[in-house]
Amino acid sequence: MPEFNIAKAKERFPALKKDDQVYLDNAGGSQVLGDVIDSVAQYLSGTNVQLGASYRVGQISNQKYEDGYKAAAAYINADPSEIVLGTSTTQNFMNLASSLKFNEGDEIILSKMEHETNVKPWVYMADKLKLTVKWWYSEKPELKLTSENLKPLLSAKTKFVACTHVSNILGSIHDVKAIAKVVHDAGALFCVDGVSFAPHRQVDVKAFGVDFYAFSWYKVYGPHIAVLYASTEAQKHMKPLAHYFNPTGTLADKIGFAASNYEITQSIPIIVDYLGGSNPGPVFAAIAEHEGKLQKILLDFLTSRKDITVHGSTSSDSKERVPTISFTVEGVNSKELVEKVDKASNYGIRWGHFYSKRLCDEVLGLGPEAVCRVSMVHYNTEKEIEGLVEVLKKVLP
Ligand SMILES: Cc1ncc(COP(=O)(O)O)c(C=O)c1O
Fold first, then answer.
1. C-alpha 117 – ligand 1 centre gap (Å)
2. Residue 232 and residue 311: Cα distance in Å, rounded?
3. What CATH number corresponds to the domain at position 110?
4. What is the DSSP string of 284-304?
5. Does residue 369 sit within a domain?
């Protein structure tokens, strides 16, 4: 396979050629590969039939859908029977929460450093099954979940722990492998929200050693669909939600609900191929290196000013963090700052709590406008980030 060329990668995205908008809300949603867009149109115009049929076009559609599932599973190092594709990570977690079996009085540990997607489903599950919820977080300035700060919360009653791989506000990478070990030593199941990690680094659920893992392809250069992994072993803790006459062997059988979006599922092999296919290592090494340069430019500027607080790690080391960078400026309202950037430039950044409301309110202690967030991916350029720094210099007091 030829080396992954960062500069050329940009050319694969039609939106990036269209106008001069600079996309820096990628943690909200990334742009979509041109080949994916084309394949969705082709599927709909040539093979859009109900799956499961034996006639000629039906067979082609069946195969394309199956190939989508196989590619998504192989991409994260899972078996196809261990994944389900659904409308969103929120929906996939809600489905999982409806299906998991625990006993009254069991304990679950939830983190406050999360997008609400990885909280609400488990609070709902706890209410329904009469489980006790324990809260896990890490104070400022560390703001990092570790196996060490989890340990005091674990008990013989702990049956489930959930946390994010990377916070969509803080950008720091949690060591989920180390956390998985202590969760398993305690005899509990471990669920990880990989939504903010997956656009930046290789996902290998077996190497992470997790029981459940999820991310959304609309932030990984594809359209709106999400994948949830549940190991074969972990599936034993699930009650299938399928119709009584349907099979229940795979995760998709158990909580898939009438199949996933056909035209998007069949496009997944194209995204996987873009990210290196069966050999994603070199692609993600190139992405990590480039992202390290991007985040250094912004972090160097932000940390040079005494009136700016970066929430999360200020290290530009790609092993420490991904380029999702949130900050507040003393005496400046985050909303007003973003509006000034909108007026002064073509840079698309955002303000708010980004659904990580518990983190922003309770851990960071911020007001309703919360943070300004700049979220970069590999198709952003150093020139763009240098330009953003100049805009910030202009609009900041
Ligand atoms: C970290 C994180 N988790 C979960 C979600 C929700 O994903 P979805 O929209 O697929 O439900 C988001 C979306 O912004 C997110 O950033």
1. 6
2. 37
3. 3.40.640.10
4. HHHHHHHHHHHHHHHHHHHHH
5. yes
Ligand 1 centroid to Cα of residue 58, in Å, is 33
Sign of CA dihedral 328, 334, 340, 343: positive
Q: How far is the CA of 115 from the centre of ligand 1 (A)?
A: 7
How much is the CA Rg of the chain, to the nearest whole Å?
21
C-beta of 117 in contact with ligand 1 (< 6 A): yes
Query: Domain residues for 195?
Result: 41-275
Q: Measured between alpha carbons, how far is 380 from 23 in angstroms, rounded to an integer?
A: 8
Check if 196 has its Cβ closer than 6 Å to any atom of ligand 1: yes
Please work out whether the CB of residue 216 comes within 6 Å of at least one atom of ligand 1: yes
How close is the Cα of 303 to the center of ligand 1, in Å?
28
CB-ligand 1 contact for 168 (6 Å cutoff) = yes
- Using pLDDT thresholds of 50, 70 and 90, give the confidence band for residue 4: confident
pLDDT by residue (tens digit) across 194-223? 999 999 999 999 999 999 999 999 999 999
Assigned domain for 23 exists: yes
* Rounded distance between C-alpha atoms, residue 96 and residue 100, angstroms: 6
Q: Is the CB of 226 under 6 A from ligand 1?
A: yes
Within-domain flag for 36? no
Give yes or no: residues 47 and 115 share one domain: yes
d(CA 161, CA 176): 11
Ligand 1 pocket mutation pick from 216, 322, 326, 356 by most atoms within 8 angstroms of CB? 216
- Condensed to tens digits (0 to 9), the pLDDT of residues 35-86 reads 999 999 999 999 999 999 999 999 999 999 999 999 999 999 999 999 999 9
Residues 119 and 24 in one domain: no
What does the block give as tokens for 67? 């190939």
Task: Tell which atom from ligand 1 comes closest to the C-alpha of 167.
Answer: 1
Q: What is the CATH number of the domain that holds 332?
A: 3.90.1150.10
Beta carbons within 10 angstroms of residue 140's beta carbon: 11
In a domain, 1, yes or no: no
Residue 90 Cα to ligand 1 middle (Å): 7
Tell me, in angstroms, the distance from the centre of ligand 1 to residue 262's CA.
Answer: 21
Instruction: Determine the Cα–Cα distance for residues 63 and 56; give it in Å rounded to an integer.
Output: 11
- Helix (H), strand (E) at residue 192: strand 189-193
Say yes or no: 385 and 308 in one domain.
Answer: yes
